[in-house]
Design goal:
With about 375 residues, this protein is mostly beta strands. It is built from one helix and 22 strands.
């Protein structure tokens, strides 16, 4: 039988070609599904609470899409070494968060899911030591409870914070909101008191309508006993919530770090202005009229209230009632009365008016005769 060699060689060559195309390199080992450690861990402290934020891993250490995530370990230690080698392993975790209920999203537009956890800093870790710090990291495990190591390390001061005042009160006055409380005093007997740590009270003001916070001011603890602060920087006809917190100020050679304690319960203030400006003082009257139409000039000391809008000028004759002379508010602390007649004596007084129409009492009277 005669065999066609061409018919035999062609299929054989095609098989060899396909086999060579499939083998481009050594076979890859299966992925260990180890989550890539987060690199964006952040921390903030308020009182004995430390809030941690980071992004959920979407990739494995070999840059494959993460299919399943396991629990997350919250790692914490007390140390003054800020280097990345200070905490090399989690050891005894401060907390173990359960695995997320859903797998990480896999799409071109998906973003890592934000994660958060609030840790309570144990009392033994809080010290009157300006160098003491709590170091945090997280370790995300796979579903077999294996991880690829710790995230970036973050540090928060482990300084002791003071409790807030227990008796904050507020009173609305014409000069502003007067806040009062009982101060613990800077000279209190704190354990391990350090000259590099000071304490202050910080006053917060929240606009109830917008929810925005502003620092109204700070005062030192001073001596134990009554303390007060007057806030004059608010806007009238708004409602505010005030609170006070004790702040621990850490003095370091290259920086100053402030750690807030807990807040007092808020005190609500409706800033409705029913308070008139100060009463004008020093009113004087002087007649002029030789060779010209007679007039009487009035001058007085300016009122310094920030919300002053102007003045009203009043005049009376003999025992008659006082009549307001100006139709519009007088803007400067002076006034010229040209409607005077010879042989009469005029008695004057002035009042101050604020931008909301609150009018002060009238000043002391002064009289001036017209020859």
């Amino acid at each position: 039988m005669k065999v066609n060699l061409g018919n035999f060689i062609a299929p054989t060559a095609l098989c060899l070609l396909l086999a060579s195309c499939a083998q481009t390199g050594p076979p890859l080992p299966p992925s260990l599904e180890l989550p890539k450690p987060p690199t964006d861990l952040r921390a903030s402290r308020k009182g004995n609470r430390v809030t941690l934020n980071w992004s959920e891993p979407m990739l494995t250490t070999d840059r494959q899409s993460m299919r399943y995530l396991g629990p997350t370990l919250i790692c914490r230690s007390l140390e003054s070494d800020r280097s990345e080698t200070a905490m090399t392993e989690c050891g005894n975790p401060a907390a173990k968060l359960p695995a997320p209920s859903a797998a990480p999203q896999k799409s071109a537009t998906s973003r890592p899911a934000p994660q958060t956890y609030t840790d309570t800093l144990p009392s033994p870790m809080q010290q009157q030591d300006s160098a003491a710090e709590a170091t945090y990291a997280v370790e995300v495990l796979n579903r077999n409870a294996r991880g690829a190591g710790l995230s970036n390390r973050v540090h928060v001061p482990a300084v002791l914070t003071l409790p807030p005042p227990s008796d904050l009160a507020a009173e609305l006055t014409g000069d502003g909101v007067v806040l009062t409380w009982t101060s613990a005093g800077e000279s209190q007997n704190l354990p391990g008191n350090s000259p590099f740590i000071q304490h202050r009270y910080r006053i917060y003001r929240r606009d109830e309508s917008s929810g925005k916070d502003a620092i109204a001011g700070e005062v030192s603890l001073g001596e134990p006993g009554p303390a007060h602060f007057t806030d004059s920087s608010f806007e009238w006809e708004k409602t505010y919530l005030y609170r006070v917190t004790a702040v621990s100020v850490i003095k370091r050679p290259d920086s100053e770090v402030r750690v807030e304690g807990d807040d007092t319960p808020p005190v609500r203030v409706i800033a409705h202005d029913v308070f008139p400006p100060s009463v004008p003082a020093g009113l004087q009257a002087a007649y002029s009229g030789e060779g010209q139409k007679p007039f009487i000039d009035l001058i007085w000391a300016p009122v310094t209230n920030a919300d002053l809008a102007g003045y009203n000028v009043y005049r009376s004759e003999a025992n008659g009632a006082a009549v307001k002379l100006n139709s519009a508010l007088v803007k400067s602390p002076s006034y010229r009365d040209s409607a005077v007649a010879s042989g009469k004596t005029y008695t004057y007084s002035v009042s101050a008016v604020d931008v909301r129409g609150n009018e002060s009492r009238r000043s002391e009277e002064t009289s001036e005769p017209v020859p």
